[in-house]
Specification:
This protein is of the alpha/beta class. The chain has helices at 16-33, 61-66, 69-79, 108-111, 122-128, 137-147, 171-176, 196-209, 223-229, 246-251, 267-274, 287-291, 302-312, 318-330, 335-349, and strands spanning 3-9, 40-47, 57-58, 85-88, 99-104, 131-134, 153-154, 183-187, 214-218, 235-239, 255-258, 279-282, 296-298. The protein has a seven-stranded parallel sheet, sandwiched between helices. Strand 1 (3-9), helix 1 (16-33) and strand 2 (40-47) form a beta-alpha-beta unit. Helix 8 (196-209) crosses helix 13 (302-312). The protein is globular.
């Protein structure tokens, strides 16, 4: 019986990458069984030497990220003993001496100096992997151009089923968040590539045309986000909200804004579509690919973003067609379909 291990790193601040890990891992055994093969699937969670988070492996993760390729390979020989296929879902983990599969969500670490830098040996390890899984055709092209990876596999993410036709948050919950009227939602981080500066510059233009509209910003506290929107009328910094609130928060919004300069996939676009909410997204990176004609795409500058959000909140009858088409489009992106794509690759490399 072939053995697959799926290995992740413990974190106390789960984001989109962790949702991917959870969704694919939980479906791995079933997806492999559907191929007609019986596999032994093992899940491992690595934590740092002093971490109190749950996990079944410990490694000096900081030192390992800076280590040479040979040192990381030696650690991998110990970590993945007994595997036929090893899927490491984050590049901080060392490569496997067996069929090494790695997920590449984006090349942000190489492109943007204000974010965490790349693992020193990551590019070399990816070029040697049995398979590199990219979440979009855009990321696959970036991997080829920037990292020299040959023939990466494209397996898109799925949408959490809770977003499909989600019920809006109850009025009392919305009022508790300060949202007692229609609002634009931006959910995610505040790194520079998220382009919040342009959204902040767009907001006065939007409020001039839509004085009753609010802007809800959900995501981990970040000084740059706070500084950009400080004192702006109608802006609500919600901080990091419980995961169970997010589908309802999206569903209750008037429009979801994704003004990013760079996204490896852009899951908020599809989550909004699944919840029957119009999307205004920048015409950059993977966003046109993921939106596929079902969002209002704009240039990533303040004037264009403002115009897009004003259009999306106009009540124009054409918006209903955009929303209906978006809902049908999002339905194609299921985690079952994503897991099946992973299973085909695991089978192919063993």
């Amino acid at each position: 019986m072939p053995q697959l291990s799926i290995t992740t790193i413990a974190t106390d601040t789960p984001m989109g990458a962790q949702a991917y890990q959870r969704q694919v891992t939980s479906r791995a055994a079933e997806a492999l069984a559907a191929t007609g093969e019986v596999w032994s699937v093992h899940e491992h969670t690595v934590r740092s030497l002093r971490s109190s988070l749950p996990g079944d492996r410990r490694l000096p993760l900081g030192r390992l990220a800076r280590a040479s390729a040979s040192t990381r390979a030696a650690v991998g020989r110990l970590l993945y003993r007994g595997d036929d296929v090893s899927h490491r879902m984050t590049l901080e983990l060392p490569p496997s001496p067996h069929a090494d599969v790695a997920t590449l969500h984006d090349v942000v670490a190489w492109r943007f100096p204000d974010e965490s830098g790349p693992v020193a040996a990551a590019a070399e390890e990816l070029r040697r992997s049995a398979a590199v899984i990219c979440v979009s055709a855009f990321t696959a092209a970036e991997a080829q151009e920037l990292l020299g990876i040959k023939d990466p596999h494209v397996v898109p993410n799925g949408v959490d089923p809770r977003y499909f036709d989600a019920a809006p948050l109850a009025p009392a919950l919305l009022q508790g968040l300060g949202l007692d009227g229609p609002y634009v939602l931006h959910a995610g981080g505040a790194a520079r590539r998220k382009n919040l500066r342009a959204l902040a510059e767009a907001w006065p233009l939007i409020r001039r045309e839509r004085p009753g509209l609010r802007l809800a910003l959900a995501g981990p506290e970040h000084p740059e986000r706070t500084a950009l929107f400080d004192g702006q009328p109608g802006v609500h910094l919600l901080g990091r909200l419980p995961d169970e609130l997010m589908p309802g928060l999206v569903a209750a919004s008037a429009v979801v804004a994704v003004p990013s300069l760079y996204e490896g996939f852009g899951l908020p676009v599809l989550e909004a579509m699944a919840a029957n909410v119009p999307v205004v997204a920048a015409n950059t990176s993977s966003l046109p690919e993921v939106a596929s004609g079902h969002a209002i795409l704009t240039e990533p500058d303040a004037a264009a973003i403002a115009a897009g959000i004003i259009d999306a909140t106009s009540g124009d009858s054409a918006l209903s067609g955009l929303v209906t088409g978006g809902r049908a489009h999002a339905a194609q992106y299921t985690w079952e379909r994503s897991a099946a794509g992973h299973a085909r690759i695991w089978n192919a490399v063993r």
